[in-house]
Specification:
The chain is 31% helix and 20% strand. By secondary structure, the chain is of the alpha+beta class. Strands 1, 2, 3 and 4 form a four-stranded antiparallel beta sheet that branches.
Amino acid sequence: ELLDSCAALLPYAKMLKEAPMAIVVCGDTTKLLIGSWILAVTQNILLAAEAIGLGAVWTATYPYSDRMEVVKKYTGIPEQINSLCVIPVGYPAMPHSPKDKWDASKVHMNKW
């Protein structure tokens, strides 16, 4: 029910309705600023999920106060805690592979 409620209110997290679980990455605003370390935490969660055959996706809540409030409402995290993202986690519906976005024509190199 909690995931369904969040899915209804978070614009890019509709897959929460299908996910059996989610991870909310948070930081304490009295002790830190959300910075590169918390981004690395999220990246590592996503890589670990992929490594064990799970599907996971970063759905941003920070810096959107309306999204962070949805997470606070449904998780009960304290006021000084802000969410960075909600990561729906589950088994992929179909096989997938990384997208190849390389485009050599977009590379510029100065030759000295």
